[in-house]
Design a protein that fits this description.
The chain is of the alpha/beta class and 597 residues long. It contains 28 helices and 17 strands. Helix 2 (20-31) crosses helix 3 (45-55), helix 18 (405-418) crosses helix 19 and helix 24 packs across helix 28. Adenosine-5'-diphosphate is lined by residues 15, 18-19, 22, 39, 41-47, 295, 321-323, 551, 573.
């Protein structure tokens, strides 16, 4: 049976083999055992429930939270030649009836529906009389209040097992926490489910963190590196979105805004333009992202710090779904931290405590100096199985540590002591910088021995070092007014028994990560651009997103191997029979023309 699914994988999708976790997930589907599959975005969840559906008798029903998601998936399946359909409220009655008739005839392998629809009485009855293979709940974390996307209509899905006794239910999510996982099993009343949890690390994402200096310049630098490629710039506030989007357009970039303050129509226009690649950059608040399956997002920039690492993981997760390298730059400032703190002040005490803890973890990540892939994996309770990820600023040594960190650390810590541990980070920094601020002279702190000790550095750098000492546990901030004090560990530094790590600021330099070098290895960039244009024309003509025709990875392989015949084209990952038939000629012709020069 598994062999048939593997044949289908090659025939329809043009892929050679399943990834290890996909194999296990598919075995559960074939065995008819309930399952919960947790894989990060881009981990290949959809194939786990799509590929077996093709080989089993009957229709697999997929519950999905958003119409745009369903549409995208159905379009992609049809392109591969898999009979799939969706039923949703935007369709005419006639169209819906036609789909149902095909389900009745058992000529649809995958049917996408919303949670409200699948449990509506008429539909339950209809499905009860149809031949079904299994049920799938996509984005299953929406069932849990502990997740970040709770949807009340998902709660009702607990009835699936009652309404469709004997059918296996398979739940898929990218949300990592143990609590959410347990909740999914409980809420959906799964029967002894097989729980499969993949690694949350995304090795193809290149993580970089920088303190924000000039927002626009820093964001533009990323866009310059990815001209004509798609990417997302996240901002905290709507106003920042509008300003940034306008500034980027003025600078000649094709950008569009997206936030909850815009009308539905305007938002949809921005989103469609991004998906169809009429605009390259979407500038957005966190409102943007769910339901975006666009596989070739090559960069995600956070122009402001998110409020938790969960959010950060979710948002950066939208980059590089096709497995190719993608750049994730996070710009942060102490001001962002303060902004979130102010927003959290109005929360009820209990959720506030959790929110503050998450915010602190986020800030610690920004100012920290451990491998970003490791830090993220650890946060989600997993270890990283390599010492050097070769895909973050820390491991690429884009961050340089200063040589005299012990002495510099001692200067900062003794300044805190001299200030009798009664002042915050800004004030302490100003004293170390030798500021003539009235408050400082008024307090006669210009007479301290530590006054002006670090005046040969920029204020931003010194302020950063203070934060780095906090994160590494040498200084602590009191709850009220964030007053600094020296910890036990800090005293070890003062006594010269321990050396902190302090970073040299390195703006502007940027090393190329191994993933990026590897995926471009042997690729003819000019031919790649030419093939992208061919793809763009086809997509435009058919009115579908470009990545549904072929993924970037497939085009790169074409631009690497330069196939000359259908058979050679079929060897390329992502070229199945139907796509070869439909588009093979156009691409082969372009390659031939290029060869001739
Ligand atoms: P998820 O739903 O987990 O975010 P997707 O199902 O969208 O992930 O898959 C991510 C990308 O990986 C897609 O471009 C998909 O076509 C590709 N992919 C998935 N499984 C395989 C495989 N076995 N071989 C090659 N590519 C794969």
């Amino acid at each position: 049976m598994l062999g048939r699914v593997e044949d289908a994988l090659k025939h329809y999708w043009g892929y050679d083999s399943f990834r290890p976790m996909q194999l296990k997930a598919i075995e559960s589907v074939l065995a008819g055992r309930d399952s919960i599959v947790v894989l990060p975005t881009g981990g290949g969840k959809s194939l786990c429930y799509q590929a077996p559906a093709v080989t089993l008798k009957g229709t697999a029903v997929v519950v999905s939270p958003l119409i745009s998601l369903m549409q995208d998936q159905v379009d992609a399946l049809l392109e591969c030649g898999v009979p799939a359909a969706r039923i949703d409220s935007t369709m005419t009655y006639q169209d819906q009836k036609a789909v149902l008739a095909r389900v009745r005839k058992d000529s649809i392998k995958l049917l996408y529906v919303s949670p409200e629809r699948i449990l509506s009485p008429g539909f339950v009855e209809f499905l009860g009389n149809a031949r079904l293979s299994y049920l799938t709940v996509d984005e299953a974390h929406c069932v849990s209040m502990w997740g970040h996307d709770f949807r009340p209509e998902y709660r009702e899905l607990g009835r699936l097992k009652e309404e469709f006794p004997g059918l296996a239910v398979h739940a898929y999510t990218a949300t990592a926490t143990e609590q959410v996982r347990a909740d999914i099993a409980r809420q959906l009343s799964l029967d002894n489910p097989q729980v499969l949890v993949g690694s949350f690390d995304r090795p193809n994402l290149v993580f970089k963190v920088a303190r924000r200096a000039n927002r626009l310049t820093q964001v533009r630098a990323v866009l310059e590196r990815h001209k004509t490629e798609s990417g997302i710039v996240y901002c905290i506030r709507r106003k920042d979105v509008d300003d940034m989007s306008e500034q980027l357009c003025q600078a000649g970039f094709k950008a569009a805004p997206y936030h909850a303050g815009m009308t539905d129509d305007d938002r949809k226009r921005s989103q469609d333009a991004f998906i169809k690649e009429d605009v390259h950059t979407i500038v957005a608040t966190v409102a943007f992202g769910m339901g975006i399956d666009k596989s070739n997002v090559r960069y995600v920039v956070h122009a402001g710090m998110p409020k938790s690492l969960e959010h950060y993981q979710q948002e950066t997760g939208r980059a590089g779904r096709d497995g190719l390298e993608a750049e994730c730059l996070l710009l942060y400032s102490g001001g962002d931290y303060g902004l979130w703190q102010r927003i959290q002040q109005d929360m009820e005490p209990e959720p506030r405590e959790a929110a503050v803890a998450k915010l602190n973890e986020m800030y610690a990540y920004c100012t920290g100096v451990t491998c970003r892939h490791r830090a993220l994996s650890n946060y989600f309770g997993q270890d990283l199985d390599k010492d050097n990820c070769a895909a973050c600023d820390v491991c690429l040594e884009d961050l340089d540590c200063i040589d005299n960190a012990l002495v510099t650390g001692q200067k900062i810590l003794s300044c805190v002591i001299r200030l009798k541990e009664r002042f915050g980070a800004d004030y302490t920094t100003s004293v170390l910088m030798g500021s003539r601020d009235q408050r400082i002279t008024g307090n006669r702190h210009d007479e301290l021995s530590t006054y002006g000790l670090l005046s040969n550095h920029s204020k931003r750098v010194v302020r950063d070092w203070v934060e780095q000492l906090v994160v590494q546990g040498y200084l602590q901030k009191a709850e009220e007014y964030a007053v600094l004090s020296v910890t036990q560990r800090g005293w070890r530094v003062l006594r010269g028994q321990e050396t902190p790590v302090l970073l040299k600021p390195t703006e502007g330099r940027s090393k190329v990560a191994k993933v990026a070098r590897d995926s471009w290895e042997g690729v003819d960039p000019k031919l790649y651009e030419a093939l992208r244009r061919v793809r763009g024309e086809i997509a435009q003509r058919k009115g579908v997103p470009a990545y549904i025709i072929f993924h970037d990875a497939t085009l790169r392989e074409m631009a690497r191997t330069k196939p000359e015949t259908d058979d050679e084209l079929l060897l390329i990952t992502g070229v199945g029979r139907r796509k070869c038939l439909q588009y093979g000629e156009a691409f082969l012709e372009r390659i031939q023309k290029y060869r001739r020069g």
